[in-house]
Amino acid sequence: MKILIACEESQSVCKEFRRLWYEAYSCDIQECSWWHPEWHIQWDALEEAYSGKYDMMIAHPPCTHIAVSWARHFEQKRKDWRQKEAIDFFMKLANAPIERIAIENPVCIMSSIWRKPDQTIQPWMFWDQAQKTTCLWLKNLPKLQETDIVWKWEFYISPSGKKLPKWYNETTIKWDRQKSRSKTFPWIAKAIAEQWGNIV
Fold this sequence. Notes:
CATH superfamily: Vaccinia Virus protein VP39
Shape: globular
CATH architecture: 3-Layer(aba) Sandwich
Number of domains: 1
CATH class: Alpha Beta
């Protein structure tokens, strides 16, 4: 089985599939930030998804222009077409000619524009002490089964008065917070590889 992890530079999911001896490749226009560039395709993820080479795809399309957490900027994003481009990219991944597909994103407008996600998960359902609502749209894949439910960790109040998960502020890299906050939590990545890898 050949697996494409689209829009992933961290190789968080890729390395878990590789740990189980699956032929998995991360793909992103950025260089990979982990230690296995030989498992990374630095290329357009859409072109790779439509190449006909893969049996499964786990996709992490950019969410900046469609996530509800950015709703205050939606009007401008609609005017300059950034939101439409993000929606089109998401849907092209969803319609890729691959038998099994999972698309991961935070709570976003795709739930109303396209369809509701098949599953919503939290890191604390998989041994990661954090709260981050993650939606999964699935094609020919079962829902992920919880592994270990743990404490959700704490929240903190930002200077603006917004309530945020503590990990969001304390476990991210200040100079590159957007990238570090978007990485898949390690125990979720492990569950994805173990559960979805075993269905074939």
